[in-house]
TrEMBL record:
Annotated InterPro entries: 4Fe4S_Fe-S-bd, 4Fe4S_Fe_S_CS, ARM-like, ARM-type_fold, QueG, QueG_DUF1730
Co-factor binding comment: Binds 2 [4Fe-4S] clusters per monomer.
Lineage, broadest ranks: Bacteria, Pseudomonadati, Pseudomonadota, Alphaproteobacteria, Hyphomicrobiales
Keywords: 4Fe-4S, Cobalamin, Cobalt, Cytoplasm, Iron, Iron-sulfur, Metal-binding, Oxidoreductase, Queuosine biosynthesis, tRNA processing
Compartment annotation: Cytoplasm
Location, primary (coarse class): cytoplasm
Protein name in UniProt: Epoxyqueuosine reductase
Native organism: Bosea vestrisii
Active site, per annotation: D167 (proton donor)
Length: 412
């Protein structure tokens, strides 16, 4: 996650250059500069050349309902321990507050749809399921450079100031994408496109150029509730509302502490993220597999054996997941997730992998190693518990040894 206070103008405005002064004749359009319509067409051409699947424009005042919706979501505590979401809320909900010079928001989407069923790995209980978006190079690194290329057209052909964002600032990408017409926020709160389904990476360019805005996309979910019904941990208190504290993606990626026993069985063998509510969307049938070479799926990250993942030390973890979003979570939290998957596997042979981590330096790992051992080899766990309690000082780890945590949700 890039620090949210690092909001910089990525490309200088032509108006800031010494030769951009209009002099006594006033603001005449310089040779080579484009009208707003032609400028929009030019950036669309560049966006397509850079591999973006869709590009649309919204005005900076296109999401007036955002402040109230954001405030209500935060007040309900649905952001969990993502405390950075509570900072700079006025700027997050209003592009013009973040950058008063902005007049338009260029929203771009890049498909990351894959081939085949991304949920098939969930049936392989001895394997780790990694979210489709994370089984490739980190999209932040890829898309930011492409956004800069598109933004350069605005600077060169429109004398416009620009800022580019890919999770780099308080920007509400999904509401802005809906306002620009890329798609609509589905009942699972993810952006859904009629052409690309639920598989779009989003990026934004704020610009001082006044570009013709596109019409917003209307909701096409209808009566469908597939995304809500499939959630293993019941993370949607109502359609169009997400309680992150119950979301497997949040729990396995963003959550820094221990994962409550209530959610462990529901996590199944998902070791990083969750694609369930995305993968079941009917609009995915129109999505074509991504052709962006720099975002190609890494075959070596598909359905990795849980025993192999549990054996990763920090160096091996960093090497295996170098350049991917998984690396940012860190080895300890990842192994915490792997041990939950081991505990859900139903395979007694994996008990040895859990036992091998009982002395891990991280209490996150030790706690879930104890939990997994109780699930797979309760007699062995009971025999070890007295000695473990005698030497363990961490209260959370001790709690796992005191009694096995009950599974309150069926594995999914």
């Amino acid at each position: 996650m890039v620090c949210e206070d690092q909001v910089q103008t990525e490309l200088p405005a032509a108006a800031e250059r010494p030769d951009s002064r209009h002099g006594a004749l006033g603001p005449l359009r310089r040779p080579g500069l484009l009208s707003p319509d032609k400028l929009k067409a030019a950036i669309a051409t560049r966006a397509k050349a850079e591999g973006f699947s869709v590009m649309r424009v919204a005005s900076t005042d296109a999401i007036p309902e955002a402040p109230g919706r954001l405030a209500g979501w935060l007040e309900a505590g649905h952001h969990g321990d993502m405390t950075w979401l509570t900072e700079r809320t006025a700027e997050r909900a209003d592009p013009a507050t973040l950058w008063p010079a902005a007049r338009s928001v260029v929203m771009l989407g890049m498909s990351y749809a894959g081939e085949g069923d991304p949920l098939a790995v969930l049936q392989q209980r001895d394997r780790g399921a990694i979210s489709l978006y994370a089984r490739r190079r980190d999209y932040h690194d890829v898309i930011k450079g492409k956004l800069k290329s598109v933004a350069s057209v605005l600077a060169a052909r429109g004398e416009a100031e620009v800022k580019v964002f890919v999770d780099t600032a308080p920007v509400m990408e999904k509401p802005l994408a809906q306002a620009a017409g890329l798609g609509w926020q589905g009942k699972q709160t993810v952006l859904v496109s009629r052409r690309h389904g639920a598989w779009l990476f989003l990026g934004a360019i704020y610009t001082s150029a006044e570009l013709p805005p596109d019409a917003p996309e209307r909701d096409h979910c209808g009566s469908c509730t597939r995304c809500l019904d499939i959630c293993p941990t019941k993370a949607f208190p109502a359609p169009y509302q997400l309680d992150s504290r119950r979301c497997i993606a949040y729990l396995t990626i963003e959550h820094q502490g221990h994962i409550d026993a209530e959610f462990r069985a529901g996590i199944g063998n998902r070791v990083f993220g969750c694609d369930d509510c995305l993968a079941v969307c009917p609009w995915n049938k129109f999505a074509e597999a991504s052709h962006e070479a720099r975002l190609a799926l890494k075959s070596e990250l598909g359905a990795l054996p849980l025993a192999d993942l549990a054996a990763l030390d920090d160096a091996a973890f960093r090497m295996l997941f170098a350049g991917t979003p998984v690396k940012r979570t860190g080895r300890d939290r990842f192994i915490r997730n792997v041990l939950i998957a081991i505990g859900n596997s139903g395979d007694p042979a994996l008990a040895a992998s859990a036992e091998a981590l009982l002395d891990d330096p991280s209490p996150l790992v030790r706690a879930m190693a104890a939990w997994a051992l109780w699930q797979l080899a309760p007699d062995r766990a009971a025999n070890l518990a007295p000695a473990r309690l005698a030497q363990e000082t961490d209260p959370d780890v001790r709690a796992e040894w005191t009694q096995p945590s009950p599974n309150q949700l069926e594995p999914a």
